[in-house]
From TrEMBL, chain A:
Protein's name according to its UniProt entry: Multisubunit sodium/proton antiporter, MrpD subunit
Domain annotation NADH-Ubiquinone oxidoreductase (complex I) chain 5 N-terminal: ranges: 67-109
Pfam family, one: Proton_antipo_M
Chain ranges passing through the membrane: 6-22, 29-48, 68-96, 108-125, 131-149, 161-181, 201-227, 239-263, 269-291, 303-330, 367-390, 402-422, 451-472
Automatic annotation (TrEMBL), chain D:
GO MF annotations in UniProt: sodium:proton antiporter activity
Organism field: Mariniphaga anaerophila
GO cellular component: plasma membrane
Residue stretches spanning the membrane: 6-26, 38-58, 64-86
Pfam families per the UniProt record, alphabetical: MrpF_PhaF
Protein's UniProt name: Multicomponent Na+:H+ antiporter subunit F
Subcellular location: Cell membrane
Source species, domain of life: Bacteria
From TrEMBL, chain E:
NCBIfam families assigned: CPA3_mnhG_phaG, PRK12674.1-2
Name assigned to this protein: Multicomponent Na+:H+ antiporter subunit G
InterPro entries, per the entry: PhaG_MnhG_YufB
Transmembrane segments: 6-25, 37-56, 62-84
Superkingdom of source: Bacteria
Keyword Cell division among UniProt keywords: no
One Pfam family it belongs to: PhaG_MnhG_YufB
Keyword list, A-Z: Membrane, Transmembrane, Transmembrane helix
GO molecular function: sodium:proton antiporter activity
PANTHER family listed in its UniProt record: ANTIPORTER SUBUNIT MNHG2-RELATED
Keyword Transport: no
Automatic annotation (TrEMBL), chain G:
Membership in a protein family: Belongs to the CPA3 antiporters (TC 2.A.63) subunit E family.
Topology in the lipid bilayer: Multi-pass membrane protein
GO MF term list: monoatomic cation transmembrane transporter activity
Descriptive protein name: Na+/H+ ion antiporter subunit
Location of the protein in the cell: Cell membrane
GO CC terms in record: plasma membrane
Primary localization class, coarse: membrane
Key words of the record: Cell membrane, Membrane, Transmembrane, Transmembrane helix
Keyword Transmembrane helix: yes
Organism: Mariniphaga anaerophila
């Protein structure tokens, strides 16, 4: 049973091997869907296990912590795994129809599973250096994915994406080195135990800065996000969608993990810094989204803006706020991916992502309109879809904790989100199709594999809203586990 | 109650799956649903007394204080009756009105959903739940207003209304959460029982202001009123519903609802009364100069909303009683008039006052109906409107403190209303026939059912208001006041101050009307004056602000996301350096005890070589020199590894360094030479920034060497490598056993990189399926 | 010696950052390699230095002499190998980019930002 | 350290090698052709091997013997590889 | 005695390596530098290896040394050959 | 480089290099070396021939090989995890057996060794693919 | 018998080689350390009489490791070798010297 903890990593690994050996594209498509489907089952199982046991830990190689590498699944990891699997599954199906013929499925799915492997590794590992390794696995896969089409734009975007992220990686590694130099350990739970009562823990601040910047780059927070708007709109929409929901959120995940588990000294400084960063991130992203007229760019800036909310939850640092951050994160992963998927469908229907060039889609395909509306409403925080609860929890947490400024910023940013969503809606759906080269493109009825991923994610968003109570309970448990990590530490070190 | 909401929801969804023959009658069906709901509420009127209310509690997310609480008390009843009653008539009216348009399924879907949301709102006993319905009404009204979405003006108006009410809604949410934190509940009953605690809390004022922001935007109070005239882009049934019983009335409802909790303080009275007065004046003043039928009506709605807010602000028994009555009055005449306006537009093809006239000949019944409604609007006896105005004057007379001012402004505003009503009747129905684009007629009786019923109600209830007062207004009044109060409505109050004021209003209003009629120029001048004095229209301001905001955003985005890659890196490095230096400064008191030594000299020499090679690499103009120096530095580092006992590491570094060099050389010949691309100044700046970063990293390294909080876990590896993992090379054992998972990730990275490099550089191949 | 090596680390970072800030993509990549070397050395250094006693344990001897800490060695080794993959991919990307656009100047890469 | 070979001898050897390293490095920087630089690299790799051999005597650990093998192998392949690319281009 | 022999070998080896470096720097053209850079360092490393092997005096070390020597003597001329062959000295004339 | 001499040498050098590499792999658990070092050396040994013959024209046949190496390597790594599952131990726990060898006390073989062999093959494939890709003729 | 003979030749060759090596290195060291000596470099084409690949390789390597000569290239037909000579005096003499070396090798490789 406990072996299952390693499977989120090993399953994608097995599929990578299969894809290296069997080179048929048709088979690759099946393997992709099948593999990611298996991941859903697996993470669902882990989710159930965690609810039963609280925290489960697997000491890899039988070497007890902190000497070996421990894989840990707690509430936070479990929910991230489930949501990631859901997204990955949707994208696997989506890829079958939306990847251009020039990208071979056999190759795509190697990197797809590479990304998944790194992602899952990052979610389950309890070891700082191992986390670095999974970051790199993920990063390397994403480098390849972003340039897979090899157009000029993609190469340019790829260079920017890559270079800024690599700087992040190096800072991360430096942080790991310094941390090890000071504490002599790499195990997160062990770190937590060492730093818990140490009055010298403030000396960790410099390492923490390096992690802060590294995760900040990964999560695309304010003065570090440049790579994202420069690159996310360049690859095929399948790949953009894959990135949109997953990559930055891993940064958020690690932020939450590190700054609740062992960087808990000097809270004054860190929480202020997180809040300031969060505020600027929200506004900068939101404003930029308002300025653009290309769906992928708008949505990309939204990613940034919404990362601000997640960081805000961490910065407020009450159980409710952290629950809010987690809730927001998972809501956003699903809704954000979904908006990208729909953007792809819009572009497929019309042949362009430029909002000024398209229109009339409401009339032509009310179904597509609904597909868009669900995630757009979710992102805009329209009750009773998931996004409303996410924002509500954060606002409640912020106001109850007296963080008025950031809450005000969050509320105002909500207006910016609304603005952009209405913009897309007005331009692509409501407005009549302008008479241009794209007008003659006949609207093809959506095929099952094209709309199913969006339906799946949309339904999830709605269900997350309707059953927000369960989800909130879960995120609250996760937050309590994070605020008081004694079970985590005990399970890892003594389990 | 809950079932009614569910029925509304399912009815709205049912539209799409109705069989064809039933689909034609969907408006009737929905109207029937509305009517059934109306009957349901009506049947409970006797049950809901001043002392008794119905409530339902459904647990939803109790951890967040978010439960489904439905509450039917006197106040809810008033609104529920209006929503469902007028709803039934509006659907009936819409059946014929929407006949000629496409997409009626969607229209009725929205409208039914909207009605349900409004009903949910007024039945909410939990303020967050109320907020949810509140937002739903905002969003659904967006769809209703933008129903003719290929018109840009419709999209703009829809956006404007959603944006303003949405913004207000969010502030309101903040206010609710803020005040909710005082009593740790969002349940209205908890607020009510802790009203004093809330009022005494220092969160009271900010909370109040935030909630008022929601109320004022939704109820189109000055200066947020401008979205409402824009909303007439919606089809007439929507306008009629929106202005009379729903949407804008949501703010009034909430104000009344919260009055027993938050009311009674000077802040409440002054802020709200003042806003109400200003809105009232704004509405009536601008109504006069409108030439669009719907425009006139929209501004009269603003006037009415101002009156309602003012009355609730005054917050006396009299004022609230007046408000509750005025709700009905306004709903009746406004719904009627909008339906009539829609009818006129439909039949004549225009809404422009200048093109209308003499319609009485073609549409006599319509005239009667409209005239009754207009009389009610003007506050003339014997209609319900008169009753209302009397009560209002009475309330104003008795209002504490600012009575005289409010009175003067109130009378002025009503003078305008009288004039407008008469002018409307005269210009549309009497006089010479206008030049209509279409020949008007009065066919289609269903059109007239709605307005007819409502106009009749205005008259009948005006003549015998007693039952309305005791059965409906009284429980509502009690709910708002939080205590039982008596209500006796009668048309004749005797000769008193109020009666004289009424007479004065009517006389002056009539004179104004005559002036307007006789001197066409007057209106034109008036309009001109307005154009000068109010040169800046608020909706234009809104559009301007949005445009400017987008422009600023564009500029900001261009400035931040400038595209200069090296400046991105510069930003990141400077940001990191600043944080690091700051932390180094904060923790500067750490004690440092590492001795400085140059021995062994060959390592110092090696260090020197590394430094030199690096420096050469940095400044050399030759690509080859740069790359080879880089290699030398790499080899030097591998020797340092070697000296400090890292054999495997050194070997790996050498191998990797060489492979890297080979790769560099492989592509080098195909790449251009270095050019001098940056100025000396730039280079100096970059160097200083680099040095700033480098030096802080030096400090960090030393600090990490110096600080040892805990014994390293490595002892375990040294002890167990041979005993338990059967290997002498501990580093290798770590790689393949203790921490084999790292290596697994590492080879995965390599594999992916290799396949990636191949794909990047090979010829593209199409998919084979 | 730690001080000297710490200075080496700092200077490697300096050179790395300086090169990162250049306009040539090639220089940028070289800067990345310097940063990477600096980081590896930093990791290696901050765990403490033990000259001349590699972590090789003989049969049954356990650990008698103070041996060098093997863990940072393994970490750096892993990091180096990962770095190799990344650098080669970066080079390939750079090469492909040059082939497609004919420029090495990062300041020309502004099309995807706005 | 050990007592069989005088440290002085080893230090002298180190000094000679260090001098060689610096000289070869100078050639590396001066060029002028890439081929010259590669030739210098070759010599440097030998110097490094020398360093390692002397050092292994200094710390009395035969384990370090594996490294010269790798270096010789690698430097040769590096030389051949780089030369391959230089067939037509210098500078 | 051993000590002296070992010391001589080590010093001589280092010396020849130094000589190679000097030659590399002093000679005027690439071919001449290759002459210096091929022969002397290989010889120097040979001497060093002999000295060090005697010092450790274990079979494994001797075998390894032999390996290295064979390898270096196999590859050093090949390397020089590769460098020289790839050198483009703008119309190299057969005889000067 | 299209040099007859280098081509002549390739025959000998290749096997010498590969045997070095295998040695580095086999001795890695107790001596410096291991899968990565061995793999890279072996990879370079195979690549050397390409340099000597200047033979990097992309041939489908030639290019399938690196991926097979990688597939094999990763598969061996995966295989090395399986015994621990069947032994009921935590995943990746090293399982060791002693192979009796005449005149010796026996050679200890374990799954970590298999893991290292997997790394070895993967790295060979990676090296080949790197060099092949970057040296392709356009 | 043949093998014995070949082994003998191989050993003899090794000694010869070793001698040449020491000689060459002392020579070159002297040359390097005494400034001012004028070299006279030249390219010489040497006819190849060896017909086995191994022999050719040995010859080429040996040539490069002995003083003053460096093998640059072998023609495609393996009939001539381009040699760089540091101290050029007389082409005949050089070619003869190299012929002797080739014969020694031929005895081993056959
Ligand atoms: Na330390
Ligand atoms: Na590794």
């Amino acid at each position: 049973m406990i072996t299952f903890v390693a499977l989120p990593i090993l399953l994608p690994f097995i599929f990578i091997i299969s894809l290296l050996v069997f080179r048929s594209d048709r088979l690759a498509g099946w393997l992709g869907v099948f593999g990611s489907g298996l991941l859903i089952l697996l993470s669902g199982y882990l989710f159930i296990l965690v609810q039963k046991h609280g925290v489960i830990a697997l000491q890899m190689g039988g070497w007890e912590a902190p000497f070996g590498i421990t894989l840990v699944v707690d509430f936070l990891s479990a929910i991230m795994l489930v949501v990631a699997a859901l997204i990955v599954f949707s994208i696997a199906i989506y890829a079958l129809r939306f990847l251009p013929k020039t990208i071979r499925l056999n190759r795509f799915f190697i990197f797809f599973f590479g990304l998944t492997m790194g992602l899952n590794g990052a979610f389950v590992t309890g070891d700082v250096f191992n986390l670095f390794v999974w970051f790199e696995v993920m990063l390397m896969s994403s480098f390849v994915l972003i340039t897979l089409g090899r157009t000029k734009e993609q190469l340019e975007g790829g260079i920017k994406y890559m270079s800024l992220n690599l700087i992040g990686s190096l800072l991360f590694l430096a942080g790991v080195g310094l941390l090890y130099g000071k504490t002599g350990t790499l195990n997160m739970a062990h770190l937590a135990e060492i730093l818990k009562n140490d009055n010298q823990a403030i000396l960790m601040n410099t390492s923490a800065v390096l992690f802060f910047v590294a995760f900040g780059i990964k999560a695309a927070v304010f003065p570090l996000y440049f790579w994202l708007p420069a690159s996310y709109h360049t690859p095929n929409i399948t790949i953009s969608s894959l990135f949109a929901g997953l990559l930055t959120k891993v940064g958020v995940y690690t932020f939450i993990r590190f700054f609740t588990l062992f960087f808990v000294h000097d809270q004054q400084f860190w929480h202020q810094l997180l809040l300031i960063t969060a505020g600027f991130t929200m506004v900068a992203g939101g404003m930029a989204a308002a300025a653009h007229y290309e769906t992928r760019r708008i949505l990309s800036y939204h990613i940034i803006s919404q990362i601000g909310y997640m960081i805000m939850g961490l910065g407020i640092f009450t159980p409710l706020a952290i629950a809010g951050a987690i809730f927001f994160t998972i809501h956003n992963m699903i809704a954000k991916t979904n908006t990208f998927l729909v953007a792809g469908m819009i572009a497929k229907a019309r042949g362009t992502f430029e909002l000024k060039e398209v229109g009339g889609l409401f009339k032509q395909s009310p179904f597509l309109a609904i597909l868009f509306m669900v995630p757009a409403f979710a992102l805009a925080g329209v009750p009773p879809i998931s996004g409303f609860f996410a924002k509500f929890i954060l606002i409640k947490a912020g106001l109850e904790n007296g963080n008025y400024v950031i809450t005000a910023v969050a509320i105002l940013t909500g207006m910016l989100t609304l603005y952009s969503m209405i913009k897309i809606w007005n331009e692509a759906f409501l407005k009549a199709q302008p008479a241009n080269e794209y007008a003659s493109t006949p609207f093809k009825k959506l095929k099952f594999a094209e709309y199913f991923p969006s339906v799946l994610l949309g339904a999830t968003s709605i269900l997350m809203g309707l059953f927000a109570a369960y989800l909130f309970d879960f995120t609250m448990n996760a937050a309590n586990q994070l605020i008081d990590p004694s079970l985590y530490i005990e399970t890892v070190l003594k389990g | 109650m809950v079932y009614i909401l569910l029925v509304f929801l399912s009815a709205s969804l049912l539209i799409f799956i109705l069989p064809g023959w039933l689909k034609k009658q969907k408006a009737i069906l929905l109207s029937f649903v509305q009517f059934a709901a109306f009957i349901y509420f009506l049947s409970h009127v006797s049950e809901i007394t001043s002392y008794h209310s119905k409530s339902i509690f459904i647990e939803w997310i109790p951890q967040l204080g978010l439960n489904l609480e439905f509450m039917l008390d006197g106040l809810s009843m008033v609104f529920a009756l209006l929503v469902t009653g007028i709803g039934a008539l509006v659907f009936l009216y819409a059946k014929d009105y929407m006949k000629s348009y496409a997409g009626t399924d969607k229209f009725f879907f929205y409208l039914m959903l909207f009605s349900g949301a409004m009903l949910g709102l007024v039945l909410s006993g939990n303020l967050i739940q109320l907020f949810i319905f509140w937002e739903l009404t905002s969003f659904i009204s967006f769809f209703l207003i933008s129903f003719f979405h290929e018109k840009e003006s419709a999209r703009k108006a829809a956006f404007q209304s959603l944006y303003i009410t949405g913004f207000g809604g969010l502030s309101m949410l903040a206010g609710i959460v803020l005040l909710g934190s005082v009593v740790d509940s969002y349940s209205f009953s908890d607020w009510l029982s802790n009203a004093n605690a809330i009022k005494e809390s220092n969160l009271y004022l900010p909370g109040l202001l935030l909630i008022l922001a929601g109320i004022f935007t939704k109820s189109a109070q000055f200066p947020f009123h401008f979205w409402l005239p824009g909303a007439m882009q919606a089809p007439a049934p929507v306008s009629s519903y929106l202005h009379s019983a729903t949407m804008v009335k949501a703010g009034i409802f909430l104000l009344a609802r919260l009055s027993p909790v938050l009311g009674g303080t000077p802040e409440w009275t002054y802020i709200i009364s003042l806003t109400g007065v200003l809105t009232m004046l704004t509405g009536s003043y601008f109504a006069i100069t409108q030439t669009d039928l719907k425009g006139i009506l929209a501004f009269t709605t603003i006037n009415a909303l101002g009156v309602l807010v003012l009355l609730l602000g005054i917050n006396t028994t009299e004022s609230i009683k007046a408000a509750m009555l005025f709700l009905f009055i306004h709903a009746f005449y406004k719904a009627t008039l909008f339906m009539v306006a829609g009818l006129i537009e439909k039949k004549t093809g225009t809404r422009e006052l200048r093109q209308l006239g003499g319609l009485i000949k073609y549409m006599p019944l319509t005239f009667v109906i409209a005239f009754l409604a207009l009389l009610s609007m003007a506050g003339l006896p014997p209609l319900l409107g008169f009753l209302g105005k009397e009560l209002i004057y009475e309330a104003k007379v008795q209002s504490p403190g600012i009575a005289s001012m409010i009175l003067i402004l109130g009378v002025t505003s009503n003078i305008f209303m009288v004039a407008v009503s008469l002018y409307f009747a005269r210009k549309v129905f009497l006089g010479k026939p206008g030049n209509f684009p279409k020949q008007p007629n009065e066919r289609g009786a269903a059109f007239l059912i709605g307005p007819g019923v409502l106009a009749l109600l205005s008259l009948v209830l005006g003549l015998s208001p007693g039952k309305l007062g005791s059965a409906v207004i009284k429980p509502a009044l009690s709910a708002v006041l939080g205590e039982v109060a008596e209500v006796k409505l009668k048309i004749w109050h005797g000769f008193n101050q109020v009666f004289f004021l009424s007479m004065l209003t009517i006389i002056l209003g009539f004179l104004l009307y005559v002036a307007m009629l006789k001197k066409d120029k007057l209106l034109i001048y008036w309009k001109k004056i307005n154009d000068v004095v109010f040169a800046v229209q608020l909706d234009e301001v809104f559009a301007w602000v949005m445009d400017k905001f987008v422009a600023v955003s564009k500029l900001k985005t261009k400035t931040v996301q400038h595209g200069y890659h090296r400046l991105y890196i510069l930003t990141i490095i400077v940001f990191t350096s600043l944080l690091l230096w700051f932390q180094v400064f904060v923790t500067r008191s750490w004690n440092f005890d590492i001795p400085f030594t140059l021995r062994p000299f060959y390592i110092s020499g090696l260090a020197l070589v590394i430094i030199l090679a690096s420096a050469v690499s940095a400044v050399s103009r030759s690509r080859i020199v740069t790359i080879i120096s880089m290699g030398v530095a790499g080899y030097g580092i591998s020797l340092i590894f070697l000296y400090y006992s890292a054999v495997d590491l050194a070997i790996t570094q050498i191998l990797v360094e060489t492979l890297t060099l080979v790769m560099f050389m492989a592509i080098l010949q195909k790449l251009p030479r270095f050019a001098v691309l940056s100025s000396k100044k730039t280079r100096l700046r970059d160097f200083l920034i680099a040095l700033g970063f480098g030096s802080v990293m030096t400090i960090l390294a030393l600090k990490a060497v110096n600080v040892n909080l805990n014994r390293s876990i490595s002892d375990f590896y040294l002890e167990n490598s041979y005993l338990k993992a059967f290997g002498e090379n501990v580093v290798n054992v770590i790689l393949v056993d203790f921490r084999a998972l790292d290596t697994l990730g590492e080879v995965t990275v390599l594999t992916i990189a290799a396949v990636g490099v191949y794909l990047l550089l090979s010829k593209p191949k199409s998919r084979k399926l | 010696m730690e001080i000297i090596l710490a200075i080496v680390v700092g200077l490697l970072y300096t050179v790395g950052v300086y090169l990162l800030l250049r306009r040539s993509i090639l220089k940028f990549i070289i800067g990345l390699i310097f940063m990477s070397n600096a980081t590896n050395l930093l990791v290696f250094l901050s765990a403490g230095l033990v000259p001349g006693s590699p972590a090789f344990v003989q049969a049954g001897s356990g650990s008698s002499a103070p041996l060098a800490d093997p863990l940072p060695q393994a970490l750096v080794l892993t990091a180096i190998v990962i770095g190799l993959g990344i650098v080669v991919f970066t080079l390939a990307l750079k090469y492909k980019f040059f082939e497609t656009t004919g420029t090495d100047d990062l300041d020309q890469l502004k099309k995807t930002d706005n | 350290m050990n007592d069989s070979i005088s440290t002085t001898v080893l230090l002298i050897a180190f000094s000679l090698l260090l001098a060689a390293l610096i000289l070869a490095f100078t050639r590396l920087l001066k060029g002028p052709s890439i081929n010259d630089r590669i030739a210098a690299m070759d010599v440097i790799s030998i110097v490094v091997m020398g360093f390692i051999l002397v050092y292994s005597v200094l710390i009395n650990n035969a384990m370090y013997f594996d490294i010269p093998i790798v270096i010789s192998l690698i430097s040769f392949i590096g030389t051949v590889a780089v030369s391959t690319y230089l067939k037509h281009k210098n500078g | 005695m051993d000590k002296i022999i070992i010391s001589i070998f080590i010093l001589a080896g280092s010396f020849f390596i130094l000589v190679a470096a000097i030659g590399l720097l002093r000679f005027k053209d690439l071919y001449a530098r290759l002459h210096a850079g091929t022969k002397a360092p290989s010889f120097g490393i040979l001497l060093l290896l002999i000295g060090v092997s005697i010092y450790f005096n274990t079979p494994v070390v001797y075998i390894k040394s032999l390996f290295i020597i064979v390898f270096i003597y196999l590859t050093a001329p090949l390397g020089a050959h590769a460098i020289a062959k790839s050198f483009d000295n703008k119309g190299k004339n057969k005889k000067q | 480089m299209n040099s007859v001499i280098l081509q002549l040498a390739a025959k000998y050098l290749r096997w010498l290099l590969i045997s070095f590499a295998v040695l580095a792999l086999l001795r890695g658990h107790n001596n410096p070396g291991g899968g990565f070092i061995g793999g890279l050396m072996a990879g370079l040994a195979i690549v050397y021939k390409g340099f000597a013959f200047n033979a990097f024209q992309v041939k489908e046949k030639l290019l399938k090989r690196p991926e097979r190496y990688m597939g094999l390597g990763l598969f061996l790594i995966l295989l090395s995890f399986i015994p621990s599952v069947f032994a009921g131990k935590p995943l990746m726990t090293g399982i060791w057996i002693t192979v009796p060898v005449p005149f010796f006390s026996g050679i200890k073989l374990g799954t970590p060794f298999l893991f290292d062999i997997g790394v070895f093959f993967t790295v060979i494939g990676v090296t080949l693919l790197f060099v092949f890709s970057l040296t392709q003729k356009k | 018998m043949k093998i014995l003979k070949k082994t003998y030749y191989l050993l003899a060759f090794c000694l010869f080689y070793l001698f040449k090596l020491v000689q060459s290195n002392i020579y070159i060291a002297w040359d390097i350390l005494t400034p001012g000596k004028q070299s006279n470099p030249a390219f010489v084409e040497v006819p190849v009489i060896l017909n086995s690949d191994t022999g050719l390789l040995m010859f080429s390597n040996l040539l490069s490791m002995t003083p003053g000569t460096l093998s640059l290239d072998i023609s495609r037909d393996k009939k001539t070798m381009l040699v760089h000579v540091l101290y050029y005096s007389d082409e005949e003499q050089i070619q003869n010297g190299l012929k002797e070396m080739q014969q020694k090798i031929k005895r081993i490789t056959g």
